[in-house]
Amino acid sequence: MAVGSRAALLIVLAGVVLLPVTPAAAEPYAGLFVGGAFSLRNDVEQDLFPGTFEDVRFDKSIVFGGKAGYFFDPPVGGGNFGLELEVYHFRPNIDTQTVTFSTGGFSGEVTLSGADVRVTPIVLNALSSPPWKAGPPSST
To answer: Label partner for 43 (CA 20 to 30 A): which of 51, 65, 117, 119?
Structure first.
């Protein structure tokens, strides 16, 4: 399934779940965020000539996105339950670097050409919190 098809499916699913709910006592929310993405070194597999580039360094990147969600009423299982749709974007590009390439039991040093990497996850989260009970402070 293509990324565009998955995104459309998630948006439709979120709409089907979130829109029919009456907002009388439930809690809708939305938010925007921006920050930094600090990717660790990682192995990169490629399919053209099956093999792995080992310990590849990724650039730091700015991450930005938004989320919208809805906590349902009445509480589910004594606690709060909600759904949240989250979309964010970052670019952990790969600079030209010397790495180890391994394939079929053989390995050696190669120069990995730089690459523009763009990541845009679209995520549907299920949220839950335990019931909170207010009471007098303990006297111990």
So the answer is: 65
